[in-house]
């Protein structure tokens, strides 16, 4: 299955990306795939700071004059030739995007990326898998989706909407979507846990998938293509471009 998410179709698709991709991932809920996944894994992208190499001890070169005679060496910091590469707005790698907007987009896409990774960790089991194992795999799956959605929701609620056109609408749509997804998935884990046979598990999964699919189809009052600054951020911020590059 392939993601249909494409940033060029408008920022609304990005804000509701999890809904669209959840529908794609969960639209086929029929058990029977021959591979048993690692149930309950939730992978979220975590950025780790690059390690700083230890500096080697410096040795003095006896043939070089300390700093008194610059005439024999060509200066390497001529402002006329180096000017373009030394001035970077606000030290940011994202060009003209406002730093607050870039931070919001980075947080949103990072959280969404972690959520989607969890969504795509979908159980694939055969129908002759023992009931306890079969049921628990889906309980773990929906519990993990609920946890990932709740984590992203908490981060969104702790932040603030970007101060650009449509910023409040998108931010609130993000919160509304995550709230509903956490509720559906959490309740889904309970529903699956109460199933008494494989057929009941399948029926519960179908129901949950339908609810998540309907959520992904909702527009939350967002009008496609009406958020130029937000769309520019999504097209520029690495956390977002990495997430949608395969769309």
TrEMBL record:
- Using the record, list the residue span of the signal peptide; answer none if the entry has no such feature: 1-31
Give the region (Disordered) as residue ranges: 36-99
What segments bear the compositional bias annotation Acidic residues?
71-86
What positions belong to coiled-coil segments?
none
Say if the entry is tagged with keyword Transport: no
Alphabetically ordered keywords of this record: Signal
Q: Which domain of life is it from?
A: Bacteria
Task: List compositional bias (Polar residues) regions by residue number.
Answer: 40-61
Q: What is this protein called?
A: Lipoprotein
Its source organism is Nakamurella alba
């Amino acid at each position: 299955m392939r993601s249909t998410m494409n940033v060029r179709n408008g920022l609304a698709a990005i804000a509701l990306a999890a809904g669209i991709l959840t529908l794609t991932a969960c639209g086929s809920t029929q058990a029977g795939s021959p591979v048993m996944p690692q149930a309950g894994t939730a992978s979220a992208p975590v950025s780790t700071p690059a390690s700083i190499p230890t500096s080697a001890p410096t040795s003095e070169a006896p043939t070089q004059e300390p700093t008194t005679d610059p005439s024999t060496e060509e200066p390497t910091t001529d402002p006329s030739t180096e000017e373009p590469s030394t001035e970077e707005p606000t030290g940011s790698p994202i060009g003209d995007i406002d730093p607050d907007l870039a931070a919001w987009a980075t947080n949103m896409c990072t959280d969404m990326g972690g959520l989607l990774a969890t969504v795509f960790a979908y159980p694939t089991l055969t129908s002759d898998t023992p009931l306890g194992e079969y049921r628990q795999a889906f309980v773990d799956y929906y519990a993990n989706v609920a946890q990932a959605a709740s984590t992203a929701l908490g981060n969104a609620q702790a932040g603030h909407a970007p101060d650009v056109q449509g910023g409040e609408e998108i931010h609130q749509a993000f919160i509304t979507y995550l709230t509903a997804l956490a509720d559906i998935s959490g309740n889904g884990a309970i529903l699956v846990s109460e199933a008494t046979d494989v057929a009941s598990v399948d029926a519960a999964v179908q129901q949950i998938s339908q609810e998540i699919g309907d959520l992904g189809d909702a527009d939350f009052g967002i009008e496609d293509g009406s958020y130029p600054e937000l769309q520019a951020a999504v097209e520029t911020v690495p956390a977002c471009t990495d997430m949608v590059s395969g769309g």
